[in-house]
Write the structure tokens for this entry.
Amino acid sequence: MVRTTLTVWGLESLTADATLVITELVANAVDHSRLPSIRVIVSRPSANAVRVGVVDRSRTVPTLRADSDGDRLRGRGLVLVDALTQEWGTELYRWGKQVWAELREDEA
């Protein structure tokens, strides 16, 4: 869905990073919310930017791990999200949350 949307919007240069970011956000939602459904959102806040998000019914806010245990195979998803995006965050709702991340093309 993200790949197709970025192609339609002419933002193909963001595809590799955006698909990795949404994969990490979905994996986190599946691993941590343990609920039967999530929703993926793709929006375009400006002509050269995309915002991807995952909505779930958990109100637990994700945190970026500061430890640097390079041998650990799990727990580095938000480190990747933080490295690949201009910004990311969490919006809390009465019934759950959305974790989102924004990527931008370099302006010419």
